Request: fold
Amino acid sequence: MKTERFKNLFLVLCFALLPMAMMAKQEATVSSPSGNLTLTVGVDNAGRPYYSLRRGGEVILLPSALGMKLKDGSLDSDFRVVAFARATKDETWRQPWGEEVDVRNHYNELEVDLNQPSSKRNIVIRFRVYDDGMGLRYEFPLQPELNYFVIKDEHTQFAMAGDHTAWWLPGDYDTQEQETQESKLSEIRSRFHDAVNWNNSSVSVFSDTGVQTSLQMKSKDGLYINIHEAACADYATMHLNLDDKNMVFESWLTPDATGMKGYMQTPCETPWRTVMVSDDARDMLSSNLILNLN
Reply:
């Protein structure tokens, strides 16, 4: 009788701990080859994917949301992690022209396979972490519930850890010939209208806190952070909208005449969204991260 009672108690405890075990599997980390950068990826209680980035004890990105909004549904919540997969690569490839003949491509990779039970749709978010930064992109496998689809918005966030100094160009679909501005992130809104060349009749500004990429920033501790994109082919160019109360950038894709941001067919993927980190601003120019992801 006692044995049976202990057996039942053991089963109850196992079932009670099962949700905690499942939640623990909803987050994973991956570091750069040298270990100086650490990326954390997970899914919160609402099924929203997120990521964060640290360099040693310094926070580069606070937890930042990921996801898409489609014309026929959303791919930004109600996800569960199906699997995490890791890989590493260290190769040297030769380019036919450029500043360097031999380019080293050395990174650690984390693939996050996600399923949305409500729509029966699957996506992959792939992260590659280099010693000087990281890249992420969305991948859409061939599947019965997602064949042809239209992107309304991309909700990739970059949650900054402070009110950094930024060198920025106003968001403009038509030109990159606006003057570069220098200000705190919190000052972008107040500086925006003075920065835009309103005499240009073709100007098309989407937001008074919108900026173009590449965006260069500097933290109060002297750390340089750059947000950009790579491998942008057959896809809308990314700008950034800033929530200047919380210092969170969110991707804003250039729309077509109807306001849509992309027409896709699986299998397919987005461009890479990149974050570079350095103590020296000149490293942004000498980095091969964008080149390797291209």
Residues 6-24 have pLDDT under 50 and may be disordered.
